[in-house]
What does this fold into?
Amino acid sequence: MAAHIYIGISGWRYAPWRKVFYPKGLIQKRELEFASRALPTIELNGSFYALQRPSSYLRWYEQTPPDFIFSIKATRYITHVLRLRDIEQPMANFLASGLLLLKEKLGPILWQFPPSFRFDASLFENFLKLLPHDTHAAAKLAGSRDTSMHGREYIKAEEKRPLRHAVEIRNKSFETPEFVALLRKYKVALVIADTAGKWPYKEDITADFTYLRLHGAEELYASGYTDKALDNWASRIEAWSKGAQPKDVHLISSQAPLPQKSRDVYCYFDNDIKVKAPFDARKLLRRLDLESGLAELDWSHADEPGELNPTKARSKTKESH
It folds into this structure.
């Protein structure tokens, strides 16, 4: 079976993108409609900061094309606040918040850990054991949500569909074969994260798909990718999608993954401060001959930084994107 390659952006509601990526005069409530026709996938990141409502997930489902995919950034309450301790109830609440309303548009769930979070094998395995790997299992776990969710929950899965998970690390203590072995045991992907050299960059394949987050090559969340860099990413994505790996692969473990003829690839650009992300995503799609059917873009403002919002720029210096 041929692999699916999804290349898009992390989030879509950014003031600097207006009149640059988004056409002049486009009202804010139509920005998702525009972005989802210019790109095949978006990583939803509002879910990281607060539980979203079923009405929002339903609206996002209805505003996007039939073949569109959302990846979901999981709540930081589990990863950053509780730090994986006593998370059964919060996990149920997160799964009950409405993401199952995305139905066939629901892609992987991203679990991002802060730089201060160190690898603890026992604690991490307990977390991996909890993760549901299909929508029926997710609905069952969501059924044990607490009373705070009553009136704002959705706990049904009309069809049984696979549910994928990916883990993004930011602490060097995870650079141990034991961590890779745990991810493979539970079929969870290690996020390949380009963070301008700030945090670990590793490419171990631990699941039947690959998940990339491109935060910026030289400047975190800001710098765009050169033609040479995009050529390199296109080459790597082609290798992963064919079940192979790049010749200069960066690994934690010398143990090879189980052979596979193809792997789906999800790739999200998070270099959004200077409006690089959506244009870099389209450039990469073009290199992989995946632009067919996507809406035309106005490239005349592609190299302009947009009206940079200082508050937004400062927020991107934090460790939570």
